[in-house]
């Protein structure tokens, strides 16, 4: 059974800093992996989807990478802003398995 | 176009009652997923529909939970004899097919007193 882990559980950084969120999964035979953002009391907003044949995807200040062989994905956020504060979730969506998320706080 | 919608947004019920939660997926999305999320946790998979049929219902916790999607569009999650432990946010998502992005609705917050 696929297990998805996100470390750290919480992260606080000053505005402007570049940061990396980590996601690991136990079964490398994945079809795709998706990163989401969740604001308090809200649903999930899709950020990036990486297919298993891809190594990375970029959208604006966000870059997600995928290394299937090591069972890892990272979400890189450049020049963080207070508006980036949220919980970031990764999911092996083809297995319908989510991590518990990383709660990010960007301080002005 | 419209995103995924869920009704009601909040539902408060008493232990032992029956509840129905509704999900309207994005038009044309054949795949529909139900998850539930407890505070501080990631979504937990319940059931996945491909068209009208439940392709994977392995996440349903017990036989009090049932879901239907009779016309391959709207889906209803049904919970019988609710228990306090069923309290959570129930999330619905849809995608063109399993290889595409999942898009989530705002969720239904269920509280069982």
Describe the model.
The complex is a heterodimer of chains A (108) and B (113). Chain A contains no helices and 11 strands. With 108 residues, chain A is mostly beta strands. The radius of gyration of chain A is 13 Å and the shape is globular. Chain B is mainly β and 113 residues long. Chain B is built from no helices and 11 strands. In chain B, strand 4 (31-37) and strand 5 (44-50) form a beta hairpin.
Topology:
The complex is a heterodimer of chains A (108) and B (113).
Chain A: E1 4-7, E2 10-14, E3 19-25, E4 32-38, E5 44-51, E6 56-59, E7 62-67, E8 72-77, E9 86-92, E10 97-98, E11 102-107
Parallel strand pairs in A: 2-11
Antiparallel strand pairs in A: 1-3, 3-8, 4-5, 4-9, 6-7, 7-8, 9-10, 9-11
Chain B: E1 5-7, E2 10-13, E3 19-24, E4 31-37, E5 44-50, E6 53-56, E7 65-68, E8 75-79, E9 88-95, E10 103-104, E11 108-112
Parallel strand pairs in B: 2-11
Antiparallel strand pairs in B: 1-3, 3-8, 4-5, 4-9, 5-6, 7-8, 9-10, 9-11
The low-confidence parts of chain A are none
Question: What's the overall geometry of chain A?
Answer: globular
Q: Which whole number gives the mean pLDDT of chain A?
A: 95
How far from one another are the termini of chain A?
41 Å
User: Helix and strand succession of chain A?
Assistant: EEEEEEEEEEE
Please give a quick description of this structure.
Chain A has no helices and eleven strands.
What keyword list fits this structure?
heterodimer, A: 108 residues, mainly beta, six-stranded mixed sheet, five-stranded antiparallel sheet, 57% strand, globular, B: 113 residues, seven-stranded mixed sheet, four-stranded antiparallel sheet, 11 strands, 0% helix, 49% strand
């Amino acid at each position: 059974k696929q297990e998805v882990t996100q470390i750290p559980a919480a992260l606080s950084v000053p505005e402007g800093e570049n940061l990396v969120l980590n996601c690991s999964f136990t079964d490398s035979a994945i079809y795709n992996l998706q990163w989401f953002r969740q604001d308090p009391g809200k649903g999930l907003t899709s950020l990036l989807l990486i297919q298993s044949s891809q190594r990375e995807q970029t959208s604006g200040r966000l870059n997600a990478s995928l290394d299937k062989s090591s069972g890892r994905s990272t979400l890189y956020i450049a020049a963080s802003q207070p508006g980036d504060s949220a919980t970031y979730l990764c999911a092996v969506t083809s297995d319908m398995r989510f991590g518990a998320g990383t709660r990010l706080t960007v301080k002005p | 176009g419209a995103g995924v919608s869920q009704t009601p947004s909040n539902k408060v019920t008493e232990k032992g009652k029956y509840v129905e939660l509704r999900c309207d997926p994005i038009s044309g999305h054949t795949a529909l997923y139900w998850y539930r999320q407890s505070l501080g946790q990631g979504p937990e998979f319940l059931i996945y529909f491909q068209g009208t049929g439940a392709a994977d219902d392995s996440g349903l916790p017990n036989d009090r939970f049932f879901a239907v999607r009779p016309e391959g569009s709207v889906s209803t999650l049904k919970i019988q004899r609710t228990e306090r432990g069923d309290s959570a946010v129930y999330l619905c998502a849809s995608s063109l097919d399993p290889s595409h992005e999942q898009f989530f609705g705002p969720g239904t917050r269920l509280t069982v007193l």
